[in-house]
Structure formats: C-alpha cells, structure tokens
Amino acid sequence: QVQLVESGGGLVQAGGSLRLACAASGSSFNINLMGWYRQAPTQRELVATITSGGTNYADSVKGRFTISRDNAKNTVYLQMNNLKPEDTDVYYCNVVTFGKNYWGRGTQVTVSS
User: How far apart are CA 16 and CA 107, in angstroms?
Assistant: First the structure.
C-alpha cells in the first residue's frame, strides 16, 4: 500500500507561481511513474508525468509548468509559473508502482484574474 500526501495548493493571482509537492510513503515499493493530474469538467486529465525515461506535459502547460522528482525522498514536485485562471482546478498526485495506480486526495489551486 502506498500513501500520498500532497501540499502546496492555494490562491494566487494570474501570472503568479505555485509549487506542489507529493510525498509517497508506505511499504517497500519501486515507483515507475509519478505525475500530476487535474480534474477537468468531464474527466481527470494529465498535467505532467515523470519516469526514468523523461517527462511528459499537457500542451496547455508546456513552457509554464515543470515536473521534478526527488528519488531519495520519494517526492514529486510541480512548479507552476505564469498561472492562468483556466489552471484553476483540483490537482491530484499519481504514482504507479508494480502496475498499480495510487492517487492523492487532491489539492486545490485557484488562480484569480
């Protein structure tokens, strides 16, 4: 079992920045993928993912968001710059290990215009 604890959400003005963090803990595990999703109106959509092979971003956040990972801490970060009102959403941390998906509870990001 893997537990995920997210932090770093909040309220920010358009053009501002926030940094999300997600720490994974639990029994021994080998994390294959870590990432962030957000709850779009109809379905959860990918924001960014990171694996040993590299990173992947949604087109809407390329050039503004950066995902990174601290393997020693089993923590994934999402640096969000030049935030826009349309980035307002609940952001969820995702971890894939041994073929299983785990999700955090979500953290609210609100961008005011």
Answer: 17
